[in-house]
Amino acid sequence: MRLPYVDDDPKMDTPEDQAVVERVKARRGGKLIPLDKALLHAPPVADGWNSFLKSIREQTTLPASVREIAICRVAALNHAWFEWDQHVPILRKAGVLSEEHIEKLKDREWDGSGLDDKHRTVLQYANAMTIGVIVKDPLFEKLKTLFSEREVVEITATVAAYNTVSRFLVALDVGEMAAKYSLDFS
């Protein structure tokens, strides 16, 4: 990482900041991952991040396959390979995409051909939100025909959240992925 990680069991300066560490650990099953050890340089940021991402990962109504195709597509488009490595196993476990389709997620030009309508539309929506930010009306209307209003908001929040995650991971080189994947920081 481009900054030092906080310790595996950090001792913070204030009880409030120590409580943040404990909340993050509780969400992670007791162990901090490199992302947490980067975020904990700024405990209030880590706390908000932890709460927001918990809602995205654990409290939406989306099927795992929909959530994870959105997350993995964002990771691939943004070269966030730490994110990719964390989420591909979850996508595989969802059991909807073949290995071939999972690998195709890395292809920026792939339009989701071969996927069912819902997953293809989510992939295209993640593309639009990540690459150009503006989502054209026909794509948005298609999304609305396939998902409830709540699900549309949850998909949108998931793509937006993981664009934030990916940009943080790549900028700080969390997980030391730049060398592994030949990202040029020079």
From TrEMBL:
It comes from Cercospora berteroae. It comes from the Eukaryota. This is Carboxymuconolactone decarboxylase-like domain-containing protein. One of its GO terms (molecular function) is peroxiredoxin activity. Residues 43-110 form the Carboxymuconolactone decarboxylase-like domain. InterPro entries: AhpD-like (IPR029032), CMD-like (IPR003779).
